UniProtKB/TrEMBL annotation:
Pfam families reported in the protein's UniProt record: Phage_holin_3_6 (PF07332)
Protein's name in the database: Phage holin family protein
Top-level division of the source organism's lineage: Bacteria
Protein source organism: Paraconexibacter sp. AEG42_29
Segments crossing the lipid bilayer: 50-77, 83-104
Keyword terms of this UniProt record: Membrane, Transmembrane, Transmembrane helix
Length: 137
């Protein structure tokens, strides 16, 4: 060891001391990974709910669009004047709104799928790989 440097706890600790700390460290690691998984699942649930709500809004807007289209056809048949043009514009706007809501809802649902805590799983796999690597040294 060089002069002027302090040894770390792991350099001074014996194998028995390090093995004694192992259960506590594994327990802490598992608790942290479970906490991460809970947070990730909560976030995915929120995104899924938001996406489903937007898809429902898109369906509702599309229903109003169909109603407006029907009203447009009635007005067109009843009179061939300016009233049907206004109804046609409203129909177009409602379908645009439905399209935007559907795209936003699809994006939200895509972020919520698959409903697994991917970050926590990846982190746990990395932890296991690190522990195996350290055990082989």
């Amino acid at each position: 060891m060089e002069t002027g440097t302090r040894p770390t706890d792991t350099e001074e600790a014996s194998t028995a001391q390090l093995l004694g700390k192992l259960p506590q460290q594994v327990s802490t690691l598992i608790r942290d990974e479970l906490r991460l998984a809970q947070l990730e699942m909560r976030e995915k649930g929120k995104r899924g709910g938001l996406g489903a709500g937007m898809m429902g809004g898109a369906g509702l807007a599309a229903m109003y669009g169909v109603g407006a289209l029907i009203a447009t056809a009635i007005l067109l048949l009843a009179t061939a004047v300016d009233a049907w043009i206004a109804a046609l514009i409203v129909t177009g706007v409602l379908f645009v709104v439905a399209g935007v809501l559907a795209l936003l809802g699809k994006r939200q649902l895509a972020q919520a799928i698959p409903p697994a805590p991917e970050q926590a799983i990846d982190s746990s796999r990395q932890d296991i790989a690190d522990i195996k690597e350290a055990a082989h040294r």
